[in-house]
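S., here's the first fold you wanted:
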Amino acid sequence: MTTRTIRPATVADAPAVGDVLAEAFDDYPWIRWAFGEERRRERLMALYRWQAGLAGAELQGTWVAEEDGQVVGAACWSRPDSAPLSAATAELLAREVPRLLGDRAAALEEAEAAGVRLRPKEPHWFLGCVGTHPQWRGRGIASALVTDGLRVLDTQSMAAVLETSDVANVRLYERLGFAVRVEWDPPGGAPHVWIMERPAQGT
């Protein structure tokens, strides 16, 4: 019988988080627009290792799902109560992220900044990504990962916000209590995006 564990990520999980999320998002519309074809999987793996794996663990915003001890999924939240990153990690991200994004950095920054303006002004948790390795999809792992994050933010009576550029995900998140706040077409030819919000719940 398979044993599943959902737990907060540690910095030691960073390589596994990078591997799983790169596999999960390689064919995702936003990622294909943002990264193009050149060495996409390799660049994604490094980006998720540093941002969701290392920084996410430091900021206590990343959860991993394990099946029999193997990391098969991960979710990364930005949370307003996080302490600052360590100087070493902040320096690493400042150096490596622009290199990984290459000539797409400016377009991505413009699209993401425009999206931020459509989110709630009040403090909230933002679900940056949740992904399951393709071989493990269809087992409720993504829902379980998101649900664990929701349990924590509910103790703070915080709203939860996310963006998706896959209409199939809208139905998944609606089952978890989210509703579409706005849908729009970001600048630069980026894919259509649904911004969804789950209101703060009582403690």
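And the second, which I think is the more interesting of the pair:
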Amino acid sequence: MSTALIVVDVQRDFCEDGALAVAGGAAVAADISELLTGAHGYEVVVATRDHHIEPGNHFSDEPDFIDSWPVHCVAGTPGAEQHPALTYRDWDGLFLKGQYDGAYSGFEGTEAKTGESLADFLRSKDVTAVDICGIATDYCVNATAQDAVEHGFETTVLTDLTAAVHPEAIPGLIEQWADQEIWVATD
């Protein structure tokens, strides 16, 4: 069994001082860097990023913060870049999502150089299990975890390495994950 780490959307716009900041985002970036320093034990390490070009109704001047959001992670802007506290750069794959839609799950993205889907990429590396961390627990991390299970991967969310838009919703989300056989790991 091979395990991959999926680092979800640790981007400038999702951390403090970003266009769509999530409290604790910069600390999560630093903590993920610490995990990936030295021998981390993952056979495959990938990252996902919002990479919006023209995402339609995903952007709004009057966002509802459910389906529509302020402008964020626009391709080619500093806000779309990896947060500087996430110093790891040796990704086995970088998956860009949301060019022309909302795209919450990393499984909706394609590899930046090859265009390969995340599921196909992981299967080509003989990955059977994934650990997921990043931003935001209750949106893109959650969607990525749900899709990972749908694609047949044993799935664990590293909750101590996530930051949530609505932290108060996490206990209910963890109950939902248990029903979906999404496991939770903490320090």
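Why I say that: Residues 137-150 form the longest helix (14 residues). The chain has a mean pLDDT of 96.

Talk tomorrow,
H.
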